[in-house]
Amino acid sequence: KNIKIKVPATVANLVCGFDILGMAINNPYDEMELRLLETPDIIIKHTDHFGLPEEASKNVAGVVLLKMQEHLNLKNGFEVIIHKNIKPGSGLGSSAASAAGAAYAANILLGNILSKEEVVHFAMFGEELASGVRHADNIAPCIYGGITLVKSSDPIDIIPLNTPDLFIAAVHPQVEVKTSDARQILKKDIRLKDAITQWGNIAGLIAGIEKNDLSLIGRSLNDVIIEPVRSILIPKFHEIKTKSLELGALGGGISGSGPSIFMITERKETAEHIARMMSSVYDEINVASFVYVSDIN
Ligand code: HSE
């Protein structure tokens, strides 16, 4: 038995919802092929040259399958072929895609024995290997599609939200930002005043998404806690954000822990226009970049 799936990139946090909100986009995406083996081996192969480890215990898809084998007492193994288009270290959920794709496809091969929450549970072992933290804000939208709220990750409580008809422009500048470093620099304590602003934004964003209220979505895409600290790691962040808003973006910010920046727009042409601007801003400072225009998956 084998299966081939497309696994979407994801934008975690959605600016104000650190570790709780995420959105699946349809460009870029990975492709994964899984085959159920009669032997207990976990074999991982990549068709790209990103240099990701293929030893099962060191690979995000591999650890997910090892945990499934162990916890579900499986006699079978899996062969996995990963065609990776979501660049590792981009902040577009590359590790989550491998982890979520492995759990999702393995569950189908096993005859759908797991609930979606259980698929998320297993996929989170991959995120833990990649970043040291069991967060599900990339995993959940990758598995559920659209926009999701991770109300709690222990116990897993995921709320799929409405999918407004919006477009995304994203740029991945070729600078390294490790998720672990981008988490380490965050302040551990926040002021009550900032917390109030932030939960106003999160509540406003969710209400805006549910009501298809684009103006409310735009007004709520603000982050007074994480972005001021992390944006210093991303060259030209403020210039790109300001120019995107001038060109008509509803709002946007850092995708996950960066370095990618994403902007949400009402029209596809606006997203395309912003993507061209993003690319030229990085060209000017000789930083290579990749840009993506997408809608919500
Ligand atoms: N919510 C996580 C963070 C996503 O911002 O650190 C990292 O992929």
Automatic annotation (TrEMBL):
Binding site for ATP: 87-97
Keywords: Amino-acid biosynthesis, ATP-binding, Cytoplasm, Kinase, Nucleotide-binding, Threonine biosynthesis, Transferase
Pathway(s) served: Amino-acid biosynthesis; L-threonine biosynthesis; L-threonine from L-aspartate: step 4/5
Domain called GHMP kinase C-terminal: residue spans: 206-283
EC number: 2.7.1.39
Reaction(s) catalysed (UniProt annotation): L-homoserine + ATP = O-phospho-L-homoserine + ADP + H(+)
Listed GO biological process terms: threonine biosynthetic process
Superkingdom as given in the UniProt entry: Bacteria
GO cellular component: cytoplasm
GO molecular function: ATP binding; homoserine kinase activity
Pfam families referenced in this protein's UniProt entry, alphabetically: GHMP_kinases_C, GHMP_kinases_N
GHMP kinase N-terminal domain residues: 64-146
Principal location listed in the UniProt entry: cytoplasm
Location(s), subcellular: Cytoplasm
Record's keyword annotation contains Manganese: no
Record SUPFAM superfamilies: GHMP Kinase, C-terminal domain, Ribosomal protein S5 domain 2-like
Family listed: Belongs to the GHMP kinase family. Homoserine kinase subfamily.
Job of this protein: Catalyzes the ATP-dependent phosphorylation of L-homoserine to L-homoserine phosphate.
Xref: PANTHER family: HOMOSERINE KINASE, HOMOSERINE/4-DIPHOSPHOCYTIDYL-2-C-METHYL-D-ERYTHRITOL KINASE
HAMAP family: Homoser_kinase
Protein's name according to its UniProt entry: Homoserine kinase
